[in-house]
Design goal:
The structure holds two protein chains of two kinds.
Chain A lengths: L4 H17 L8 H11 L5 H13 L6 H48 L4 H9 L1 H16 L9 H16 L4 H13 L4
Helix pairs in contact in A: 1-4, 3-4
Chain B lengths: L14 H14 L5 H11 L5 H13 L4 H44 L3 H25 L10 H17 L4 H20 L3
The chains are: A mainly alpha, B mainly alpha.
Chain lengths: ~190, ~190
C-alpha cells in the first residue's frame, strides 16, 4: 500500500514520465501502468486495474479518465476518501501535465509558422495517414473479440453504424442507445 | 489547402461557450470522443473545416498525450490563447470525471449482470462504427490534397494494412509512412 510522502512522489513521478511516452494516447501506456501499479508495487489488484479501464471505456468522456480511476483506487487503499481524492488528482495531473504543455507549445509554434513549407508539408502530408488510422481504429475496435464468425452480429452493427454515420446526420446518441438495447436483449 | 478565414465564420462566443460546448461533446462520447468532436465542431458549429480538422488532428496524434485532449487544447488555444486551452481541457474532463466516478461507485453492484455486459458490448460495436465513419467522412479532405488522390489512397491503404491487419507499432508506421508522406508533400509544395 502507499505509505509516506516519498511513495506519493514516486507515484506522481511515474505518471509524469508515462505522459511523455503516451504517443497515440494514454491507453498505449496502460501495459506499463499495470506492470508498475499491480506487479511491482502491489498498490492495485488485477481486477481493480481491469475494471478501472473497462468503466472508463464504457463511460462518456475521454478514455484517459481510466487513469483518474486508477489513482482513485490506489489512494483509497492508502488513505480512504481523502487518499482517493489525492490519488485521483496526482494520477490525472501527472499523466496530463507534461503532454499538454508540450502539445500547447508545439501547436502554438506550428500555428505561428503555418506558412513555412515544412509545417505545411507536415500537416498536409500526414492527412492520408491520419484518416487511414481512424478507419483502422474502427476496424481494431470491431474485431477486438477476434475474427470468429460467431461475432457477425457485432460486425453487422459496426458496419451499419459506419454507413449511417457516414451518409446521414442521425444523432450519435440514438445509435449508441440502439446498440445498448440490442446488447441488453442479447441480440448482439 | 487552408483557405483564408471568411469574416462571418462561426466561432465560440466566450470562454463559457467554449466550456459548455466541450462538456456537452465529451458527455456524448461513449467509447471515445473523436467522432463527436468531428460532428459537433466541423458539421454543426462549423468552427473548423474538414481540412483544418485533419491538420489539427495530425498534430494532436503525433504529440504525446490523449489525442482528443490534445485536440481540444489546441482548438481552445486557437480562439482564446492559454485561457481557452485550459477552459477546453476543463470542459473535456470536469463533468465526465464526475460521471466516471459515479459509475465506478455503482459498478460493483451490477458488474456481473449479463444484460449490462450485453449493453456495453452493443455500445462498443456502435462506437467502433462511429470512429470508422469519422475516417470515411474526412476522406473528402483529400480531394484537394497536393499529392493527388491516387498517391493519398496508396499511402492511406498502406497505413490501414500496417495498423489494422499487421498490427505494427503506431510509432513505426507514423515514422516510416508519415515521414514518406510528409517528404513527398514537401517536394510537391515547392519553394515559395
Amino acid at each position: 500500500m502507499v505509505g509516506g510522502g516519498l511513495d506519493w512522489l514516486a507515484f506522481f513521478g511515474h505518471f509524469l514520465m508515462l505522459s511523455l511516452l503516451s504517443i497515440g494516447g494514454a491507453i498505449t501506456t496502460a501495459p506499463d501502468m499495470h506492470r508498475y501499479l499491480v506487479q511491482e508495487q502491489g498498490w492495485l489488484t488485477d481486477p481493480q486495474f481491469t475494471s478501472s479501464v473497462a468503466i472508463a471505456q464504457a463511460a462518456p468522456g475521454p478514455n484517459v479518465l481510466f487513469v483518474a480511476l486508477l489513482g482513485w483506487n490506489v489512494g483509497m487503499g492508502a488513505g480512504g476518501w481523502a487518499g482517493a481524492g489525492a490519488g485521483l488528482v496526482l494520477a490525472l495531473a501527472g499523466i496530463l501535465l507534461p503532454s499538454t504543455t508540450l502539445t500547447y507549445l508545439a501547436a502554438s509554434w506550428g500555428h505561428r509558422n503555418r506558412e513555412l513549407r515544412a509545417v505545411r508539408a507536415f500537416k498536409q502530408g500526414m492527412a492520408p495517414i491520419v484518416i487511414a488510422l481512424l478507419v483502422a481504429t474502427g476496424w481494431i475496435l470491431a474485431t477486438s473479440g477476434g475474427y470468429r464468425l460467431s461475432q457477425w452480429p457485432l460486425w453487422a452493427v459496426t458496419l451499419a453504424t459506419t454507413l449511417i454515420v457516414w451518409r446521414t446526420r442521425v444523432h450519435l446518441l440514438w445509435l449508441l442507445g440502439i446498440g445498448a438495447v440490442l446488447g441488453w436483449f442479447g441480440l448482439v | 489547402m487552408t483557405s483564408p478565414l471568411p469574416a462571418d465564420r462561426p466561432q465560440p462566443r466566450s470562454l463559457t461557450d467554449l466550456f459548455l460546448s466541450f462538456t456537452w461533446l465529451a458527455l456524448q462520447g461513449f467509447g471515445g470522443v473523436l467522432a463527436v468532436v468531428q460532428r459537433e465542431l466541423v458539421e454543426r458549429k462549423r468552427w473548423m473545416t474538414r481540412e483544418e480538422f485533419v491538420e489539427e488532428w495530425a498534430v494532436a496524434q503525433i504529440m504525446p498525450g490523449p489525442n482528443v485532449i490534445n485536440l481540444s487544447l489546441m482548438i481552445g488555444g486557437r480562439y482564446f490563447g492559454l485561457p481557452g486551452a485550459l477552459v477546453a481541457l476543463a470542459g473535456m474532463l470536469l463533468v465526465p470525471l464526475m460521471v466516471v466516478l459515479a459509475l465506478a461507485l455503482v459498478y460493483a453492484r451490477f458488474a456481473d449482470h449479463p444484460q449490462v455486459a450485453g449493453a456495453l458490448r452493443g455500445m462498443g460495436a456502435v462506437a467502433a462504427g462511429l470512429v470508422a465513419a469519422t475516417g470515411l467522412k474526412l476522406f473528402s479532405a483529400l480531394l484537394k490534397h497536393p499529392l493527388g488522390l491516387p498517391v493519398c489512397m496508396a499511402l492511406g491503404g498502406a497505413a490501414f494494412v500496417a495498423i489494422a491487419l499487421l498490427r505494427l507499432p503506431l510509432a513505426w508506421v507514423l515514422l516510416v509512412l508519415g515521414g514518406l508522406a510528409c517528404a513527398l508533400t514537401w517536394r510537391k509544395l515547392g519553394p515559395r
